[in-house]
């Protein structure tokens, strides 16, 4: 449901993108911590966005990630076996696929599938004067239209990341040991040694950083009323995601 029509902001002063992102991030995080954001009809809006962002794509994204993971895992396993390095296959698959590729793929999937469209919708409403996000309008427009979309994008990123990583770990075991349960103890021990406390913390922080970037950076385009806003939002979000990935790589390997 679109908001009521307000005076057009077509001629409003353009804000620097960084200022708009800081403003949106602060308001969204503040509203996310307020119990009033989840009471009464507001909970229905939040729940609707959570479901729309994550649930419809979960099944077929799991299939796509399984196909992609199977191809990469098979290449790594066969290569390792041909060189007599089978014991290193688990380490290679987990570090390359689970720790690095799948979280980034899930974030880009959520960005391209939903968040760019949601950001464009809010920007169109604001350009047409149907959405007021100025301080004088109070917190309700933010609570009703911005917060649910941001929470939906963040949840979808975390959910798809975890689902694809679990699928990749299962496929790795099946490619190495088949359906035999006897290697399960050794396999879980090997995976646990890779996910040492530092690596696990960096993985969790990276996933959270990806979720916040996908949820907030595209929505900051609501303050950019110029043409080609979708392209700029895509580029800016990709830059932030790569920045988070580089920080995680530095933390893991340097």
List keywords for this structure.
elongated, mainly alpha, 254 residues
Distance between the termini: 49 Å
The coarse overall form would be elongated
Counting helices, strands and paired strands, the structural category is mainly alpha
> Average pLDDT, to the nearest integer?
86
Major β-sheet annotation = none
**Total helix count?**
7
Number of domains as seen in the coordinates: 1
Helicity, in percent?
over 70%
Round the Cα radius of gyration to an integer and report it.
21 Å
Would you mind describing this structure in some detail?
It is a single chain. With 254 residues, the chain is mostly helical. It has one domain (17-253). Helices cover 75% and strands 0% of the residues. It has seven helices and no strands. Helix 3 crosses helix 5 (184-194). It is elongated and about 65 Å long. The protein starts with 16 loop residues before the first helix and ends with a helix. Residues 5-13 have low confidence and may be disordered.
Write the layout of secondary structure elements.
Blueprint: H1 17-32, H2 41-82, H3 89-127, H4 140-177, H5 184-194, H6 197-216, H7 229-253
Task: Describe the structure concisely.
By secondary structure, the protein is mainly α. It is built from seven helices and no strands.
């Amino acid at each position: 449901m679109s908001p009521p029509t307000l005076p057009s902001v077509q001629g409003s002063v353009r804000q620097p993108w960084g200022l708009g992102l800081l403003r949106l991030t602060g308001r969204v995080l503040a509203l996310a911590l307020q119990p009033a954001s989840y009471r009464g009809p507001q909970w229905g809006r939040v729940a609707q966005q959570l479901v729309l962002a994550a649930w419809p794509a979960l099944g077929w994204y799991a299939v796509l990630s399984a196909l992609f993971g199977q191809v990469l895992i098979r290449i790594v396993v066969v290569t390792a076996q041909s060189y007599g390095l089978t014991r290193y296959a688990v380490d290679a698959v987990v570090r390359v696929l689970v720790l690095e590729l799948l979280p980034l793929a899930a974030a880009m999937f959520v960005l391209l599938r939903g968040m760019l469209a949601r950001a464009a919708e809010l920007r169109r409403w604001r350009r047409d004067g149907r959405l007021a996000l100025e301080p004088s309008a109070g917190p309700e427009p933010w609570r009703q239209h911005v917060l649910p979309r941001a929470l939906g994008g963040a949840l979808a990123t975390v959910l798809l990341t975890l689902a694809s990583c679990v699928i990749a770990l299962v496929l790795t075991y099946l490619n190495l040991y088949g359906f035999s349960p006897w290697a399960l103890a050794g396999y879980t021990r090997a995976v646990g040694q890779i996910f040492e406390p530092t690596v696990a913390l960096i993985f969790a922080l990276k996933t959270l950083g990806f979720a916040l970037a996908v949820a907030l950076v595209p929505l900051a385009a609501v303050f950019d009323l110029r043409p080609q806003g979708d392209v700029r939002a895509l580029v800016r979000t990709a830059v932030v995601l790569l920045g988070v990935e580089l920080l995680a790589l530095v933390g893991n390997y340097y």
